[in-house]
Amino acid sequence: MNDESTRKKILMTAGPIFAERGFQGATVRDISEAAEVNLASINYYFGDKQKLYVEVIRAARDSQGGSSAFEGLHTQVPPAILLEKFINVLLKKLGIGVEPDWKMQLLVSEFLSPGEACKEIVEEYFRPYFELLLGIIDRLAGGNLSDAERLRMGFSLIGQCLHYRLAGPIIRMFVNAEQFSEEFDNETLAKHIARFTIGGVKSLVEQSKASTVT
Amino acid sequence: MNDESTRKKILMTAGPIFAERGFQGATVRDISEAAEVNLASINYYFGDKQKLYVEVIRAARDSQGGSSAFEGLHTQVPPAILLEKFINVLLKKLGIGVEPDWKMQLLVSEFLSPGEACKEIVEEYFRPYFELLLGIIDRLAGGNLSDAERLRMGFSLIGQCLHYRLAGPIIRMFVNAEQFSEEFDNETLAKHIARFTIGGVKSLVEQSKASTVT
DNA sequence: ATTGCTGTTAAACATCTGTTTAATAGACTG
DNA sequence: CAGTCTATTAAACAGATGTTTAACAGCAAT
Lengths: 214, 214
What we know:
Chain A has 214 residues and is mainly alpha-helical. Chain A contains eleven helices and no strands.
């Protein structure tokens, strides 16, 4: 009866813990205690810690339909609006201003120190979002960008969002608390990054057109 | 006679090891073996691992004159040129295309997981560079940016550079090897980020002027 | 009832890692 | 020379952590 119950308990509990403390930082004892199961259960069901980690990622992917939060973004809305919305959602998922989505945290962890599960999580979890973003950028540029240019644009945007997430403590060293909550909140940052990106795309397209004319 | 010799050996050897593996990942045994000193020497001279880490950072700061690599950048050169040069140097320091500067790696480590030494290393090692960058951006914008706007610009630029450093393995999943070495090398990226940033600043200034007129 | 399978548990195990200890050797001092 | 201080060393220690073991309980089938 209790057949798969403890297995599920482990799987559910381990996700946020791995996300918060990383693979190394999360101990099997932490996980087993939080899941209220015996220490040995983890090895019994999953073999070892590494395999549990992979299973957690796989379960995370299956549990919720991919880019659901971005659903409805690929309508006929102007790309500039779309872009800001995309950034807004991404920042939220990353935890700017709100509690971070632990699945996104897992993704970020794999970004920073790619492990065995990296390829899988990137392909299944990151690529759909990224393709969506590339589409928006493409529309923004009126289809005038090369593959590499579009990729660089995409990575530059992701890079900015990630940085505002990762460098929060450092940013706080440069601005006071009041300024931080007013000028570096989700909405303001989304506007900033969107405007920044749109300007960048525009300037690139102009230059590209100019050189084409030449 | 050998008085400070082993102490210096530890200090010199520990830097790159900390930089490469992070504070947690670098073990005192690794360090003592690499420095060819006895395990206990580290505690004898520095008290504990943490204090050694702080000393390493302090030594790194003192050893080489701050923003020397950026020397000569604050001349009367057009800010657009200056900016690209700045990005170029930063990318090199971060290890895009070349071996990374281990001091910069330490800085990045502290960025990603701020420890006790974070405040010190940021103030002494990062802020001078950053102020320089803010100056360039300010000239680029003709002095039309608010403090917060300038800061966001600066962080967006740093974020992009850092991301191209950190996400190297992920980028490789989206482009083939040939494309990677041709389209994501130091020079191309510096050009891309510079153009991106200039476009972003321009668009922000224009919008800012427009709203001022209104 | 016995057997065999499955899940559970506490304990043990093995390894790694930061730190401490106790002994030793060398150099300088009185 | 005796004494004291410093530096060095091998060993031990203590704690954390991933993994394994051996015993046990529940339960179904023979």
